[in-house]
Amino acid sequence: MSDDPVVIHTDGGCRPNPGPGGWGAVLRHRHHVREMCGGEPAETSNNRMELTAPIMALEALTRPVLVHLYTDSTYVRNGITKWVLGWERNGWLTAAKQPVKNVDLWQRLQAACALHQVEWFWVKGHSGIADNELADVLATRGLQQAIAGA
User: Fold this and answer.
1) 119 marked ligand binding residue
2) Residue 4 labeled ligand binder
């Protein structure tokens, strides 16, 4: 695996929440840039869209690489770096013995991460970080395209 990371910024959201949703991702490696977006015209949630964005970005990578993944969702970052192994160990139940929400996406994100060396970073949303702002624009585009195509 190269020490030259693929840098990914992701975002997702719904309007309203729950409601139709969109996700966006910006992937950068050296001088290559890939923009991705998509959405759900049916009712979904902000958290599902925030999870879908890194899943789609990681699944788009064609070989194992070092990834620096930036999200403005503490839910996603804490979930994948702190909580998911405990949930899995507990049969996908929370500490309160309740089923983990979005378990299908957590399992898919785990599988996508297993193929790469992923380092997770949290960034404050709407704080002027160019690729985070672009991921937000792409998530909105994904939402609009999903609604238009429904």
Assistant:
1) no
2) no
4 among known catalytic residues: no
**pLDDT tens sequence across 96-150:** 999 999 999 999 999 999 999 999 999 998 899 999 999 999 999 999 999 998 7
3 part of the active site:
no
Dihedral through CA 8, CA 122, CA 81, CA 27, nearest 10?
0
Rounded to two decimals, what is the model's pTM? 0.96
Does the annotation place 11 within a ligand binding site?
Answer: yes
50, 79, 116, 142: the catalytic one is 50
Sheet strands side by side (includes 6-14): 32-44, 19-29, 6-14, 66-71, 117-122
Question: How many residues in the chain?
Answer: 150
Please report, rounded to a whole number, the percentage of residues in the chain having pLDDT higher than 70.
Answer: 99
Which residue is catalytic, options 72, 116, 131, 142?
Answer: 72
| Encoded tokens for 13 | 């959201």
To the question of domain 6-149 being in CATH 3.20.20.80, the answer is no
Count of beta carbons in the 10 Å neighbourhood of residue 50? 27
